[in-house]
Amino acid sequence: MWTEETLIRYRLERGWPPLADAERVQVLALLNTMAQAFKGLPFFGWAEPEQS
Amino acid sequence: MPLSDPMHLTITELSARIRRREISIREIVKLCLDRIEALNTHVNAFVSRVEAEEVLKTAEQQDLLISRGQRVGHLHGIPFAIKDNCWTTDFPTTACSPIMKKYRPPMDATVVSRLRGAGAIILGKTNMHEWAYGATNEKSLFGAVRNPWNDKHISGGSSGGSGAAVACGMALAAIGSDTAGSVRIPSAACGISGMKPSYGTVSRYGVFPLSWSFDAIGPMARCADDLSLILGIISGRDDKDATCTSAYSYTPACAKQNFKGIRLAVPVGNFFKRAPEVDSVFKTAIGEITKDGAVIEEVEIPRIAEAYTAWSIIEGAEASTYHAGFMEKSADLYSSGIRVQLEVGRCISAVEYLRAQQYQTLFNRQLDDMFSRFDALVLPTLSVVPPLIGAGKLLLGGKEMSSQEAMIHVTWIANLGGLPAVTIPCGFEDGGLPVGLMIMGKKYADSEILALASRYQLLTRWHEKSCLPSLLK
Question: How near does any CA of chain B get to the CA of A17, in Å?
Answer without folding.
Answer: 9
